[in-house]
Design a protein that fits this description.
This protein is of the alpha+beta class. The protein contains 5 helices and 25 strands. Helices cover 28% and strands 33% of the residues. GO terms for molecular function: ligase activity; zinc ion binding.
Length: 430
């Protein structure tokens, strides 16, 4: 399996599992194995070979229950808590050993009591131990001493932090003094360069106006069929900043903002009007950001951490987090003041109330992951494994089912006359 490799064989990127294979994990967990305390190294010369130990644990257990059984297994080796020099024991024999152990220490040994004996002499000793009557005072003293140690440790940390900050401030002051003179020279150079760039921008704007005029003239003359798209659509630039694949995009046209979600668990906000730079990085998810959706002045993001986060677009701040599904949130879409979220075998319908999401209904009867959702005026279209379901948005009932081929449906587009879907096996169905 290629997932067992640490890196992708194509681009050498580190491999991560987006969604665990639930069926395979459950099948492996049903396998029966011997308890490790019922096995011993085999007498053969083969390395890492084991055989059943007739004197060990006789139980066979499911692999999924291994940790629970072995943590409580009566055949697990343990050490005497009273003295490490006592012989090794099995857990089932520990209680009997403690009744006979000759190395029981007085609970006040840390204060200087030297008593060591068995259970009978231990109980007799406690009646006469001079520290027993002072145990409350000794405990209070220990507590005060511990508090003082904690306070001293905190003060030491604060002192160390202040010293490091003082050193850094001194270095910064020295660096600022060195850079101050250079800044004035760079400022003069930048002013000259800015003037040159402004002149070049004006020339480019003039050329663009000429191109637009030429295109309009060709459209008016009815010869649109002969144009070259490469002469109209040109790459304006490239946004760089994410540390992983970009899974989803969403445009807020009012403020000329572009939102991008990535496997680096962040959402970046880009200015598409003036600076073409990242305005802010939104952090809050613990998994890949798989879906973005805008309703009004709110941005909704769905993630592999199974949550939906509500963001205020005006101040770009997180205002709410909803534990939406038990599995990754793969897709989001909004319509009629409702938000629809797709996950494993389920679509949840949420009423949007301010910054809150109130669960209205869960649409079930889906056969696999819901990775594509599209909402029109009257219908919701959902794509899963070889199936497109059409739901009436007014009553949230399924009104039609389209069967496709080519594996899971990953994308859907709806026109006035057609439904178009892209599938896992490189196909587009119309």
């Amino acid at each position: 399996c290629s997932l067992l490799a640490e890196k992708c064989p194509v681009d050498n990127a580190k491999l991560t599992v987006v969604v665990n294979n639930i069926a395979v994990a459950e099948q492996i967990g049903e396998l029966f194995i011997h308890c490790k305390y019922g096995c011993r190294a085999a007498a053969s010369s083969k390395p890492a070979a084991f055989e059943v130990d007739p004197r060990g644990c006789p139980f066979t257990i499911k692999l999924s229950a291994r940790k629970d059984h072995e943590s409580s297994c009566d055949y697990r080796p343990v050490r005497c808590p009273n003295n490490p020099s006592c012989p090794p024991l099995l857990k089932m024999n520990l209680e009997a050993h403690l009744k006979e152990c000759e190395h029981i220490k007085c609970p006040h040994s840390k204060y200087g009591c030297t008593f060591i004996g068995n259970q009978d002499t231990y109980e007799t000793h406690l009646e006469t131990c001079k520290f027993e009557g002072l145990k409350e005072f000794l405990q209070q003293t220990d507590d005060r001493f511990h508090e003082m140690q904690v306070a001293m440790a905190q003060k030491d940390q604060e002192i160390a932090f202040l010293r490091s900050m003082l050193g850094k401030l001194s270095e910064k002051i020295d660096q600022l003094e060195k850079n101050l003179e250079l800044k004035f020279d760079v400022l003069d150079e930048n002013q000259s360069k800015l003037s040159e760039d402004l002149m070049e921008f004006r020339r480019d704007a003039s050329m663009l106006n000429d191109e637009l005029s030429h295109i309009n003239a060709r459209l008016n003359m009815g010869i649109l069929g002969s144009y070259d798209p490469q002469q109209i659509f040109k790459c304006k630039g490239t946004f760089v900043g994410h540390q992983g694949p970009v899974w989803c995009l969403c445009v807020y046209s009012i403020g000329d903002l572009l939102f991008s979600g990535s496997s680096d668990k962040t959402i970046k906000v880009w200015d598409t009007c003036t600076t073409y730079k990242c305005q802010k990085t939104l952090e809050g998810h613990d998994g890949i950001v798989l879906a973005l959706c805008i309703q009004g002045n709110k941005l909704y993001s769905g993630s592999a951490d199974c949550t939906i986060i509500v963001w205020d677009i005006q101040n770009l701040q997180k205002v709410n987090t909803i534990r939406a599904h038990d599995n990754p949130v793969c897709t989001l879409v909004s319509s009629h003041n409702m938000l629809f979220s797709g996950s494993l075998k389920a679509i949840k319908v949420w009423d949007i109330v301010g910054t809150e999401l109130k669960l209205k209904k869960e649409l079930t009867g889906l056969n696999h992951w819901v990775r594509a959702l599209v909402a029109s005026q009257n219908y919701l279209y959902s794509g899963s494994y070889q199936t497109i379901k059409i739901w009436d948005i007014r009553n949230l009932e399924c009104v039609h089912v389209l069967q496709t081929s080519g594996g899971s449906v990953y994308s859907i587009a709806v026109t006035n006359h057609h439904i178009v879907c892209g599938t896992y096996e490189n196909l587009i169905h119309v």
